[in-house]
Every structure is written in structure tokens, then in C-alpha cells.
Amino acid sequence: MTRYFVALSVAASLLTAQSLDPKLLLKPPADAWPTYNGDYSGKRFSPLNQINSGNIDSLTLAWMYRIANIGPQRGVGNPEIKSTPLMVNGILYFTIPNHVWALDARTGAEVWHYGWEDRGGHLVGNRGLGMYGDWLYFMTPDCWFLSLNAQTGKERWRKKIADEKLQYFCTMSPLVVKNHVLVGVGGDAMDVPGFLESRDPETGDLQWRWNTTPRKGEPGSETWPNPQAMEHGGGMTWMPGTYDPELNLIYWGTGNPNPVFAGQGRPGANLWTASIVALNADTGKLVWYHQPSPHDTHDWDNTETCILFDGLFKGQPRKMLAQAARNGIFTLLDRATGESLVTKGYVGVNWMKGIDAKGQPIPDPAKEPKVDGSLVNTPGGGGTNWPPPSFDPDTGLFYVNAKQGYSVTYLTDDDPEPQGYGGGGGGGMSEPLLEAIDYKTGDVAWKHVYPSGGFGNAFPGILTTAGKLLFTGDPSGNLIAYNPADGKALWHLHLNSMLSNGPSTFLLNGKQYLVVGAGDTLWAFKLAEK
């Protein structure tokens, strides 16, 4: 029995070859948005300035596309667009779990639709697609790795990555680097080990695998008590990484260790979980690492985007990497060596008691989860979450949607060898805000506190442009344009729900478009015709 369908709904004249020129991946996004973050750097900064702070009041709706005819998704209700669409040669490609669409980027007309019947994967979201030549790459919730024809949406082949019966699930947007398609896995607190794989774009065959928890005798194993703890150790790789072509290094954030809140069965730093790692793109060999959450016991996945940029630090030119992590820490590293340059809280971080010689936080044992509760001044769910931040080279500021407040965590399994979550909590009080961070110091240059509502764990993503604009959303369902230099709100429009992805922009037929996802709807904007 076939497990897919393709519905064509536009004239055959639109179905021209949609091949991706690999050179597009190596330059800032302008006339295309060819990968999850627009380019390999993760900055989500566009050099386009047709839409700018001087004419933002003329921004108007070009088209909208609402997902229809699929019904509520199993276990999660109505669908949400958490992917960032690719735009290549006038066609937009976007996803939700089990589904891929191609739209005419000029009009929003559907070109084709692909559907998958999963066998039990978690439908928490899908971040999007990778593209190589004429082919698209898609991860299903039950961890099949698919290749689709970009012109027709027909399936080319499929490869199994992980077993959903072991509670693995797959949500990430594959990252294409040279002749590698990089894919990772999720598996929330189900005591399975994480990994990252490189797959051949032509065949889907495995090229290399890097395990986020080492095996007995391997480097990093000394930070775990025994092989059993490593085998169940977690460290999921469910978000796309970034890449430096000159260094040939990929940069990935890894998830929390397991059991999640009960750390007594895994004493030690628990490498390579809750870390930033630099791997050789061709071999998967570890070059360096930095661990923002050693021995994490608060469910602080460290999978947030690692943004790459070049600039001055203390008067010297540096190739740098910056991350605002879920644990409330802003980290700045030299991305060639992994040397720590800045480690500083952008929200409260009383869970740590200092910084070690490597610039890594030293956890405070008094703030670990307890049977009667432990209070920390980092909100439940963390200071931020997966939706993408942005870096504007014109201002030198790093932007992140965040929460500040308090939470309480509890230990519910005090057995010497706990399983699963082993605890829980969060809740408490939190306040949503947009922060601009000076990368040279980690100081908050400005912040905008949203007047109502709360993000929960569904933060909007961010886009900055050379038009002196920052686009994001607020908890009330508004799409907002800010001045990235000082945070002044310049324009807003109320949508049908809160932004659920990272905004993107591109130039098509001489017109700049802005595209955002909000709930089950994709919205496209451009300047009003004069």
C-alpha cells in the first residue's frame, strides 16, 4: 500500500525545473531563501532594503495561504507552521508534520502537496526542508528520511533513521553541506541516546554518524558513571546546525541528558549533551566543544541556533559563534578554536555559582531539583526556546525573544538509578520580552517588554534586514517591525494567531517579499503598488 499522495493544482507551465544552485547557500539570502536560516551563518539577516524603515507603512498583504483539507493533527489539534519556507526559483516549499507543500511565491497558489502516513511519531512540529539540486529532503515524525522531486513532489526514495517504537521522533530541517545531508533525532526523555548523521544526497545512504553520548573508552566517557548511563543518555540533535565553509566545520547544539531532572544516576558533566560542538563536515569527527549546561538537571536543551559572524573582539578580528541558550546564558566563542570569549546571563541564572577556566558555568548543587522543590530565577521552559534568533552586523547586536521570571523544579524519582523524567516543574512567573544583546560584552543593549500575554514555549522567530528593520511577533498575535538599533516599534499588523516560525524575505521579479507563518496560515507581504 502506498504511503504518500501528491495533489497537483496549477497549470503544468509552472512545473519547470526547480534546481538549487549550490552557490546560493554560500551567500547572504537575497533572491532566494535556500536553507532553514537563509544561509549557513544562522544570522537571519538579509541585505535587502527595498522594504525599509522609511516606507514600512506601505507594507501590504500580497497573499495568504491557509492549510486546508487535512483536519486536526493526531494529538495536537490544528496544525502549526513551524517551518521556515525555502524559496528557490519562484517556488516556496514548507512543511508541517507529515506534509510538504510547494506554492507559487508570487501568488500563493498551490503547486503540489505531499502527504505521509506516519506510524506513531510525535507531531510536535517540523522545521522544514533541505534542498540539493533538483531534490528536497524531509524528515517524517516517525523518522523516515525522504527525498522528493522538487518539480512534482513525488517521492524519490526513503531511508529509516531511527525507530519510533523506541520513542525517537524527527522534526528537524535537514542541512545540506557539500555532498552531505545532515539529519538528527529527537526523543524526549525516553532514555535513548541521541546522534547526528550525514547522508548521501543521491542515495540516502549513511556517510557518518556522530553519537552525542560516547561509548566505553571513547573521549567524554569519563564524564559518565558507566556504559549503561551513556546508552540511555539523551542529547538529541533535533534542530539544524550552522556551517563555516572556510573551516569546514559544522556547529550543532545538543539536547539535555536523561533522566532529565534526576541527575543522581549520572554524576559528571555528561558530555556531549547540552553542548555546542564543532565537527568536521566530511568525517563527523569532533574538533572542539563547549558545554553551556554541564550536568543539566533542568530540561535545558542546548539546541538553540549557533550564529556565526566575523568582527572585532577587544580590538582583534575574530571568527565568532554566538548562542542565547535555553538555560539563560549568552555564549560567545571563537569558532575556530572553541575558546570562550563571553559567558553571561541574559535572564536570571542563579542555578550556577560561577564560571570555570573554560568559560563554562559551574552548576550550583543547591539549585538542582528536590523533592520539596527548588526555586530558580530562570523561567519554566527556559529563557528562550527553539525559534530562531538573529544577528544584525550593522548594529552588532544579537536579538532573541526571551522570558524572565522564576520557576520551581521537583525531584519525583529519588532512586539511585532513576528513569524517564525523574521530576518536573517549571511554571512559576514569567514575563515575555525581546532583547538586544551586545555580543562584545553580553550586556543587554535594549529590551522591549511585551504588554500582555505570555509565550509559553512557542516563541516567535526573528529576522533583521539592511532596511533597518527587525521583524518578529508578540504574544497577542501581532507581526511587528522594530528599529533594530533602539527597539522602537515602527509598524504592526494583527494576524490570526501568534507567529509560529521565523520570518524570511527574498527578492522576486524586482519585488521584496516578507513571509511569515502564524498558526495554520502562511502570510506574504510586499510594498503597495504606487
Which percent bin holds the helix content?
under 10%
Strands side by side in the biggest sheet: 1-7-6-5-4
Largest sheet: 5 strands, antiparallel
Query: What is the tally of beta strands?
Result: 37
- State the separation between the terminal residues, measured CA to CA: 54 Å
Number of helices: 1
Topology:
Layout lengths: L3 E5 L36 E2 L12 E8 L19 E3 L2 E6 L2 E6 L5 E7 L13 E3 L2 E5 L4 E6 L5 E6 L14 E3 L2 E5 L10 E5 L6 E6 L15 H5 L10 E3 L4 E5 L22 E5 L5 E5 L16 E7 L2 E9 L4 E6 L5 E6 L6 E4 L5 E3 L10 E3 L13 E3 L4 E15 L11 E16 L5 E6 L13 E3 L3 E5 L4 E5 L6 E6 L9 E5 L2 E8 L2 E7 L3
Plain-language structure description:
- With 530 residues, this protein is mainly β.
- It is built from one helix and 37 strands.
- The protein has one helix at residues 227-231; strands at 4-8, 45-46, 59-66, 86-88, 91-96, 99-104, 110-116, 130-132, 135-139, 144-149, 155-160, 175-177, 180-184, 195-199, 206-211, 242-244, 249-253, 276-280, 286-290, 307-313, 316-324, 329-334, 340-345, 352-355, 361-363, 374-376, 390-392, 397-411, 423-438, 444-449, 463-465, 469-473, 478-482, 489-494, 504-508, 511-518, 521-527.
- It has a five-stranded antiparallel β-sheet with strand order 1-7-6-5-4, with no helix packed on it. A five-stranded mixed β-sheet has the order 2-31-32-33-34, with no helix packed on it. Strands 26, 27, 28, 29 and 30 form a five-stranded antiparallel β-sheet that branches.
- A hairpin with a 5-residue loop joins strand 10 and strand 11 (155-160).
- The longest helix has 5 residues, at 227-231.
- The N and C termini lie far apart (54 Å).
- The model is unreliable at 1-5 and 7-17 (pLDDT under 50).
